[in-house]
Amino acid sequence: MTEILSPAGDLERLKWALMYGADAVYIGGYNYSLRANANNFSIDEIKEAVSFAHSLNKRVYVTVNILFRNEDLKELDDYLITLSNLGVDAFIVSDLAVIKRIKELKLKPEIHISTQESSVNKETVKFWKSLGATRVVLGRECSKEDILDIKNNVDIELEVFIHGAMCTSYSGRCVLSNYVTLRDSNRGGCSQVCRFCFENDNMDDFQICSKDLCMIDYVPELVEMGISSLKIEGRMRSLYYIATVVNAYKNIVVKKQENNLTKDVIEYYRKVLNRVSNRENTVHFYDKEASIDNQYYTGRVELSNQDFLALVLDYKDGYATIEQRNNFKVGDVVEVFGPNLEPTKIKVVELINNKNENVDVARHPQEILKLKVPFIVQKNDIIRVPI
Amino acid sequence: MNKFYIIPNKKEIDYFKEDLILPLEGYSIGFDVYFSIDEINKIAKSRNISVIINIFLHKNKLEDFKNIINKLENIEYYFIEDFGLSNLLPKDKVVIMGSHLINNYDSINYFNNLGIKNIVVNNELTKEELVQIKDNTNSNLFYFLINRNMLMYSKRPLISSYYEYKNINGNLKLNIKEKSTKKELIIKEENRCTCIFDNNIFSANVYLDLLDKYNFIINLNNMSDEEVDIIMKHYKDKDLNKYIKTDNYFLDNKIIYKLGDKE
Hints:
The structure holds two protein chains of two kinds.
Chain A: E1 3-7, H1 11-19, E2 24-28, H2 43-55, E3 59-64, H3 76-86, E4 90-93, H4 96-104, E5 110-113, H5 122-130, E6 135-137, H6 144-153, E7 157-164, H7 176-181, E8 197-199, E9 206-207, E10 212-214, H8 219-225, E11 229-232, H9 239-257, H10 263-276, E12 281-282, E13 308-316, E14 319-324, E15 328-329, E16 333-338, E17 341-347, E18 351-352, E19 361-362, E20 368-372, E21 382-384
Parallel strand pairs in A: 1-2, 1-11, 2-3, 3-4, 4-5, 5-6, 6-7, 7-11, 10-12
Antiparallel strand pairs in A: 7-10, 8-9, 13-14, 13-21, 14-20, 15-19, 16-17, 16-21, 18-20
Helix pairs in contact in A: 1-2, 1-9, 9-10
Chain B: E1 3-6, E2 19-23, H1 37-44, E3 49-53, H2 59-68, E4 75-80, E5 94-96, H3 105-113, E6 118-120, H4 127-135, E7 140-147, E8 150-154, H5 158-166, E9 173-178, E10 184-190, E11 193-198, E12 201-203, E13 215-219, H6 225-234, E14 246-247, H7 249-252
């Protein structure tokens, strides 16, 4: 079974990711994680995360993937032991010092090698396996040929990025952030200098920013190859983004495994993913060498997304209690989807506010309303603009 | 403690008296000159030669590498970026050169336990961190004493793609500035990959005494002839910066932003 692995920047996102189909989530603690700007998890929150995930028979991986300086090593043992005792399923690591500690302390969580190590060939993956890793997150620069060669020659779990932001550089091999903004890219402080603008006497708008990754067309192939885990990037993304992207890929994988994946399904979810993304995306390295299509040249266009219309809080007697997120009105056609609900369109025929008055428009942010829905919906289902 | 040069041209090899590290043609990136196997073998007959293999080897390149690597003769060290190549080379001759990755003595000691006893230490560390490392390991340590530090290595043709988009032609090596900070950088595209370098020349000469246990690498690539001349005259001097503008910011300043720090 191919795993869908979702990011989770906080406990709420984690719960949504798991509800919407993720088989596992990766999270960062307050220490030693590469996304300093994500909210990240306290020890108590990790405990709750593990408990919640395990109750659903799902898994939690914790990133301990900074590159350690001498001073960072001091409290590492205690941190690893604590996480191990909480029952996390794996550590995602980059630094050999962490692998050494995990082995010396005989800790139970698996060792997954972070994409920061840019593992792109079978010899490198063999090297990590020889150190005790059970899984390697491959470099995002891997082609199909690279992945197949590794898969066919090393008996180890492979994890492949399928969606989200890309580094311009090989991961881990970039310290532009250190030199340009004095933030340590390999200790959680990356300021994404690759998204800045550069100039010289002849050019005033030189850019090196990469478009995002979208592997929807190749997910079925990756499932066939026996790739263990398909990874979505974005620990700082919104709840709606995580629910939507996870749900899209989970449905594709399930339908592929059940042998009923059609072109229409792929096309539908391509539209879903394109709608939820706020940047352009492309396949990058899987099917060809990097080319002109992979970069931005005139500034990165970031669109704000207003597709998320409302969140279902409850359902009773033909009415869903909802919390508004963006404007919609009576007469609009909207789409409802959820962890147990295939996307289904309905026409908005009746909206009732908390004074029991009929209203034409859901216009107030987070207003609680009742919406007539002709089928049963559940708490945490999402209402969005139809795809 | 030994000194190694990475030389900027093939014409004046004899001018550089110390041991040489030669970038292997087709398997290295970010240098001004590259050396074929025949050239390396020829030079290695009369002096100590090491080679650099600092690209990531994707499938086809890896297969090619397996076919050619045994043709190299009398090599002192193989400086490798891709850890997996340590499976294919004599462990005692491997030097791990994971750019920016080797930052602490625990990692170095772990490599040592694996039989890999030669390590290039990261250029972004403070002098205190470098001293701590040398005091806590028995490994054979290397350090870029003088270098235009490589700050980024990408598998993307960043310059030619830009030219293609703009429908213009131009050089594949450019001096650029980041617009908001005015930080000066050098960007260079080779074989549809791209590297970015700091425009400042890094030098740790002022701390030569502290770094006594390190082997020093002097990389003369990505420098002008004039810069090479000055460095060659004064590379042993603690006050190299009297003769040429150099930078050692990270040696003196702990980077202020990491997880948990307050800005």
